[in-house]
Peptidase M23
Amino acid sequence: MRTKRCGKAARTCGRLVLLLLLTAAVLLAPAPRLTPTAMSAPSAPAPDPAVPAIGRAWPVGVRPPILRGWEPPATPYARGHRGVDLAAPPGTPVRAVAAGRVSFAGRVAGKGVVSVELTGTGDPPLRTTYEPVRASVRKGDEVAAGEVVGTVESTGAHCTAACVHWGLRRGETYMDPLSLLPPWLLHRGPSRLLPVLGVPLPS
């Protein structure tokens, strides 16, 4: 009887020792390192390093809703979305994102198109395209950043809602037009008035 009790006590002690060893191993093990990918996923694609962030204005409005983003095709003739669709009702002014020279202003397949070669962007230069747009400029015109180049037309069924398609190319290579916008413009929120010392707030 005494031998049975000792054997049972030894088994119990052995289990307790094993449990203590496992607990210590877990507590003393180094914590797994989190990589930037594991910690947070980017909310937007990284800007293209081949595109200088020289933009000074959105083509329409102030940070308009993006109906469809840049979806680069796997091959030159594959399906994809070679630009960005920005929500904009017909009649909305369309502005040059950056300074340049109008390389085309006319109609293509029944839609108004305006293209602007951007100043100082290499050879061949970067070229932005806006459609469907009723042009207020002509080929050869020099335009400043933020200058109106036309208005959004209701022609075309490219988007499910009224929009302007904004594209970017260097030669025959399509690129992400959002890369033209610097972070302060891309993520800028609504303007807010700050109080001025000694001036009462409006009631």
About this structure: Confidence is low (pLDDT under 50) at residues 31-44, 189-203. Residues 27 and 168 are 54 Å apart (CA to CA).
